[in-house]
């Protein structure tokens, strides 16, 4: 771990360490020197943390800070209550992907204003940012207030739930009526954005190149049969008409960023090949005459939109990443020359630090 990373973790954990940790100084030293530590909490409970578990430690510290009650037993079973009515249990010593995702939700959700219930009360009686977590056939499921469901095993917590349904990042204009509209979703990951736009009434062509993400999306669509009727899942990449090599992190199967444009993961990157399709090919193959919204979160594929295809697009929303020769200025000029009025915006500290990454929303100028 570099000094930069140590400072990063300390900055994130600092406010929570101050509030709920008893052995504050020992924990800070453990982070600096990358050591395992027994974290002692103010209520007297203790949790063993390895030096490789700092992200999980951040989620634990945040979740326990936001909780109204919590406990940790000698077997590292964590119980968290946010309202004294709904209890969530996490087996930390043998942390499953499900429980890891639940832990993340119990941190990031309250951080951005969400609450979670585990009982059978009617969810529509609660506020909009309410989510129910329950188990069916030994599989944990999370459901939002509108009834959209996901398997906890098959989500990327920040993208699937936090960004789409808590922070509502894909809601760009309340006056847009998506009923009977066409959305092309380049980078559908676990199915959150296709389900979001389908819930608004749109027909969604959901492109996801990474096999594990695509399979997660189809599993989540199976929980939402009616909305799934409006979604066409496609295991292909948007960009170029050729077989494309994607580079991704080698440490996980779901949620890691992947790109055919650049490799930010170094020589140990995990590689996979998938068929690519240009926007013009997509329009022809699926007989699409007009795209009401082109949504792109595909780590560089936004720089491969053919000019002659943009005339069929009314609105475009891009989570862009500009690296090397791919400049945001060039993308803005292309969209402007194609008749779009564009705005740029950011939503996080990491994106606020430069213009390398952010969001771009463009609407076709009415003549």
Report strand order across the widest sheet.
12-11-10-17-18-20-19
Percent in strands? 25-35%
Distance between the termini: 55 Å
**CATH homologous superfamily annotation of the largest domain:** Vaccinia Virus protein VP39
Uncertain segments: none
As a whole number of angstroms, the C-alpha radius of gyration is 22 Å
Described by strand count, sense and barrel closure, the largest sheet is: 7 strands, mixed
CATH class of the largest domain: Alpha Beta
Q: pLDDT average, as an integer? A: 90
- The helix content, as a percent range, equals 25-40%
The number of domains is 2
Number of helices: 11
Q: State the total count of DSSP E strands.
A: 20
The CATH topology annotation of the largest domain reads as Rossmann fold
* Overall morphology: globular
Return the structural class.
alpha/beta
In the CATH hierarchy, what is the architecture of the largest domain at level 2? 3-Layer(aba) Sandwich
